[in-house]
Specification:
This protein is an alpha/beta fold. It is built from 15 helices and 16 strands.
């Protein structure tokens, strides 16, 4: 029986004891997940202390701890040292881009849209490909891409200092598709992958879906710290590592070549399977050598065209060590059957015609102009000359608010750092502000003005706390 009476005791969550079947920790985790995903427990809700919940349910503390751990691994909970356990902000939120743009009543600065105004160049090339390609582009042939399409990929990868054989290149339906294929084919449920403390939100979701554990590794202004990674390798069995070295999403840091070399040495030493996501490498005028250059036998390198050329084209180039070739081909065939030839052929034509390079030049100029606008509002933070987003510290007085909801009420959409969080939350919270998403520079200026004024405002009755 419970030690204390809970009849009139306020608790943020009181699960039904009668619904706890065996094993109880899993039943409790399922009840908690249902209440989170249904919206019954809103984002940032603080859960009862584990000892208190154990007393209420008349269960061992270890049972509560295991249930909380299961939900944390699924991305439903996050913890703050000394403060407790909370419902994740994006647990029950659809993070997809809105289906109908006209329905949005706010300026989009949350989801990173890659300057879609330049898609007209891709459209023109796709029309040319359609006119001459015929029905050969519409069948099942060449699931890994035609020789022409993979030769174009090889040519494109040379811009990023990747010298790869055609047999070690696959064409996937975007970086997200490549990540899903790699996790499905090269990892197993329960495997552990090292990541930055804040990392790509969709990678977190993919890992949760596949029951792969993400292990946060602390970093500095250049990203993941090699000595911290090695300490984790000594203490536990890590199976892989995921890195976004150039204009990291969400923090924006850029990894130096010496840092890549140091991390590569650890990858080789502990035989880690590395995933290098170079989604923003095109923004660097002179990128350093990729991680794959220093650990070629352990690294799968992803170069997506979604941000650099056209988001709707859904093309990424995946390179891999020869020992993974059969598994990756099997994964691509069973997940995709093939990447649509029309898209792959269009990408090839964009590359060989020089249009892809032209689009990148235009996007870099626009990104630079938008970064200058951002400096007018946040001069101490906006230091990168380019970049599609800004990693902005959130003032402490807003730490107890649902800031995303608050910002949307003021007319802008932003992303809170908890969306990208792996492990326990920092004392400092952040916002990721997508500078590339507003349709025009004028709209960006308006959105940044709203954000600056909101951050400078005092707390009042219009602010709602969690």
């Amino acid at each position: 029986m419970p030690v204390n009476s809970f009849d009139d005791y306020p608790m943020s969550w009181k699960p039904e004891k009668e619904q706890l079947t065996s094993p109880k920790y899993r039943a409790l985790a399922d009840l908690l997940a249902d209440d989170i995903l249904s919206g019954k427990l809103p984002p940032h809700t603080k859960l009862p202390p584990q000892r208190e919940l154990a007393d209420y349910l008349d269960l061992n503390l270890s049972t509560i701890t295991r249930a909380f751990q299961l939900c944390t691994q699924k991305g439903l909970l996050y913890g703050i040292t000394g403060r407790g356990t909370f419902v994740s902000p994006n647990a029950a939120i659809d993070i997809a881009i809105a289906d109908e743009k006209e329905e949005a009543s706010y300026i989009e600065m949350g989801i990173i849209k890659p300057l879609d105004a330049f898609n007209t160049e891709t459209y023109a090339v796709m029309e040319q490909v359609l006119q001459r390609g015929g029905t050969a582009l519409l069948d099942y042939s060449y699931p890994m891409g035609t020789p022409y399409q993979r030769a174009a990929a090889q040519k494109w990868l040379e811009h990023f200092s990747m010298d790869v054989s055609l047999s070690n290149i696959a064409i996937t339906a975007g970086a997200q598709n490549a990540l899903a294929i790699l996790l499905l084919t090269l990892f197993r449920p329960g495997d552990k992958i090292a990541t930055d403390h804040y990392t790509y939100a969709n990678f977190i979701e993919l890992a949760n879906m596949m029951q792969i554990r993400l292990i946060p590794i602390s970093g500095d202004a250049e990203g993941m710290l090699p000595d911290v990674l090695e300490n984790h390798c000594r203490l536990q069995q890590l199976n892989g590592i995921y890195l976004v070295p150039n204009y990291h999403n969400p923090t924006g840091h850029i990894m130096s070549q010496s840092r890549k070399e140091a991390l590569a040495a650890i990858i080789r030493k502990y035989a880690l399977l590395a995933i290098e996501d170079d989604i923003y490498g095109f923004l660097l005028e002179k990128p350093s050598l990729p991680l794959a250059h220093f650990a070629p036998d352990y690294t799968c390198y992803i170069c997506s065209l979604s941000k650099s050329i056209c988001s709707g084209l859904r093309i990424a180039y995946l390179t891999f060590p020869t020992r993974f070739a059969a598994d990756i081909r099997r994964g691509i065939y069973n997940v995709n059957v093939k990447t649509p030839s029309l898209n792959s052929e269009t990408a090839g034509e964009l590359i060989y015609s020089g249009t892809a390079k032209k689009i990148i030049g235009q996007k870099r100029m626009e990104a630079a102009a938008r970064s200058e606008i951002c400096k007018d509002f946040f001069p101490e933070i906006a230091k990168n000359p380019l970049g599609f987003s800004l990693w902005l510290p959130l003032p402490e007085r807003f730490h107890e608010t649902d800031f995303e909801h608050l910002a949307q009420k003021r007319g802008i959409s932003v992303c809170h750092s908890h969306r990208f969080l792996v492990g326990e939350a920092d004392v400092q919270q952040y916002l990721r502000i997508a500078l590339s998403s507003p349709d025009t520079k004028e709209e960006l200026t308006k959105g940044l003005s709203i954000l600056r004024d909101l951050l400078a405002s005092d707390m009042d009755e219009n602010f709602f706390c969690i």
